[in-house]
Here is the input.
Amino acid sequence: VPLETLEEMHKLEKNFPILSTEFRLIDKIGEGTFSSVYRAEVLSGHIKLGSDMWKSPPLKKSKKVLLPSKKKNPIVALKQIYVTSSPNRIHNELSLLYELTGNTHVAPLLDVLRYQDQVLAILPYYQHADFRDFYRDLPIKGIKKYLKELFEALNYVHDKDIIHRDLKPTNFLYDPFKGKGVLVDFGLAEKLNIHNKVNNHCPCLNKDKLIINKNHSKRLNIKAAYPKSDNRAPRRANRAGTRGFRAPEVLLKCTNQTTKIDIWSAGVIGFSLLSRKFPLFNSPDDTDALLELAIVFGLDKLQKCAELHGCGLEINLTNGNITNGNLIQLLHDMLIYEVNNECFPIDSVVYDTIKLFNSQGDSFVKPIADNNIDSEEYKRNLEDYRDHKQMMEVLSGCFKMDPSKRLSARSLLKLPFFQELST
Ligand code: ADP
Ligand code: MG
Here is the structure.
């Protein structure tokens, strides 16, 4: 353990004396803008987790709180939520965590410690692997299991009308050996308000016009893209989340965001696993993010999506720029794909992707080197191929531009892709 961390742990023990008597701090396992997470062993049986802070009805039978093996001391994760986080934010995270306690796919809140303005949430520690260490290697069946765990977690959370808002690999702790996944980090999560639930049309509609002017051969002054005198009311919407995982309606500042924004993010993770590319989208800002989506999913689709939210979307890019830009890079990265440890081009899978996602698929991208596909090879990998095709169906359900058409976690779990796991 680095000296710096030891000092931090020492300071933490000074503020929370119980940490040096009832716990043994082991190391630091995470650090973000609003929190540090430590691993600790719970010593002896003195502390009764889950009994002190929250005066609440006793946990129902279904509210099983699973701690690691009884013989060994339980290992917990201590999430120190920084004081820079507002009291409301801390309260929001803790109360949502508490509400969500009772499902194996969401880390239950065991207890909360407070010292002055400092707050420590105690959660069971989950063994997991770093996404970057396995996203290149998960076979299609492994991807299937990962996504099943993820959608089961989302299904539970969404049933309680909670939007996670920051779904990404670091917030879904996955153990590829056990095939178990747990959703963590409800720091940005929101309870859906009642208005968001009943929507036939998107109430964020107004006459905004969003203009993107990007010219990659000659970068224009971005200011030139905006009207000289702009008297439109600025649009404000929750944009909380992480770049690359934001749904189009978040980028378009829709004020009526629903649980479907998590489904989009799950799709991005799935696409990452399938294409062996992480991060998949890497634009520095929301404007570029929209451009990235336009390139991958088609400008016309994104324009229709903007209309849905009362925005106009203009992209000042020639077709040449589009076809010579990121799409080709993305496809290039996807072309070599390992199936059964054999490298061969998955042109047809890529082609299917483009066809599914892009209405202009046929003219946009021609199947590359069709004759390279050895039909024997495909027969051997028929099952993998079927899995890939079925997974495309899952992804296209996640990537519907219109959130009301985007599939829910429950519907996604019913798709053929997951059937072989549902016994
Ligand atoms: P932040 O709000 O700072 O992102 P998180 O709740 O996402 O905080 O935790 C940060 C990191 O700490 C996670 O990405 C994960 O690696 C680790 N972590 C958090 N909770 C647990 C847990 N219960 N078990 C194991 N590791 C955890
Ligand atoms: Mg996090």
Observations:
- The first helix runs from residue 3 to 15.
- The pocket of adenosine-5'-diphosphate (ligand 1) is lined by residues 29-30, 32, 34-35, 37, 77, 79, 107, 123-126, 170-171, 173, 184-185, 187 (CB under 6 Å).
